[in-house]
Amino acid sequence: MSTLWVGTSWKMTKNLAEGRAWAGGLREHLEGSAPTGVQPFVIPSFTATTTVRGILGEGSPVLLGVQNAHWEDAGAWTGEVSVPQAQDAGAQIVEIGHSERREHFGETVATTRLKVAAALRHGLTPLLCIGESAAIKAAGGSTEHILEQAAGALEGLGTEELSRVVIAYEPIWAIGESGRPATVEELIEPFASLGRAYSDRVTGILYGGSVNLDNAADLLGIEHVTGLFVGRTAWRLEGYLELLRIAEAHAAR
Ligand code: PGA
Fold first, then answer.
1. Domain with 174 in it
2. Is the CB of 232 under 6 A from ligand 1?
3. Residue 163 is part of a domain; what is its CATH number?
4. Which NCBIfam families does the entry mention (predicted)?
5. pLDDT band at 1 (very low <50, low <70, confident <90, very high)
């Protein structure tokens, strides 16, 4: 059984004091090693990257990420952060193509492809987010849509490069305050399709969208799900620690 990746993006939440408290609490709890069979990761805002890196320490069992990065290494791109800059700040993962970035900031399949390539070029793990809207789901196009998003972003990668990619399937209708948790039944077909296409070829295929302490174990039980990518439930450290416990118990089965 593959390692279960369980992590959180803080999105645009937490000031430095709050970030320090969360990261410090996690470090204390883990005492230098990850739960067996689980790969924890945290993706703070850019302003907290070096702070969280410092608290977790070099060689931490918790991987650190950024929520976006530009595809160019440097240049006149006001407001952007490059992969080498993210790496310099201690990041090991680059989140790419979250639906909030696709919806509000013009992220496209073409830009996700450039960003995946940039992350791989510098040895960082691309965490590629894909997911369909409620309208696409209602029209019966979910699977086709997410396979297109994935294929477009991963086009042209060799076997070794692809093996370093993590995919997160996050249906837009299930994300955030306005989302509703997906049922296990709704996720079987998308994960079967993603599994057929990618399960032996990438590092992991995670589920995200209203993951909570009541549904986490069931979600991990879906075939081809190899981890959870979590927002709100993990923003409280206690919630995140409980998710790690649930994943550890699942990995031990
Ligand atoms: P949520 O966010 O867990 O708060 O629904 C999930 C996500 O956007 O990754």
1. 4-251
2. yes
3. 3.20.20.70
4. PRK00042.2-1 (NF000722)
5. low
Containing H/E element for 238?
Answer: helix 237-251
Residues 6+ apart with CB under 8 A from 128: 96, 97, 112, 116, 150, 153, 154, 165, 166, 167, 168
Q: What's the pTM?
A: 0.98
Return the closest-CA partner of residue 242 out of 252, 253, 230: 230
175 close to ligand 1 (CB < 6 Angstrom): yes
Question: 39-77: per-residue pLDDT in tens?
Answer: 999 999 999 999 999 999 999 999 999 999 999 999 999
Domain count, the chain: 1
Q: Active-site residues: which are they?
A: 98, 170
Q: Compute the Cα dihedral for 44, 48, 53, 56 and give only its sign.
A: negative
CA of 98 to the centre of ligand 1 (A): 10
What amino acid is encoded at 24 in this protein? G
Q: How many CA atoms lie within 13 A of 135 on its CB side?
A: 0
Q: Is residue 179 lining ligand 1, measured as CB closer than 6 Å?
A: yes
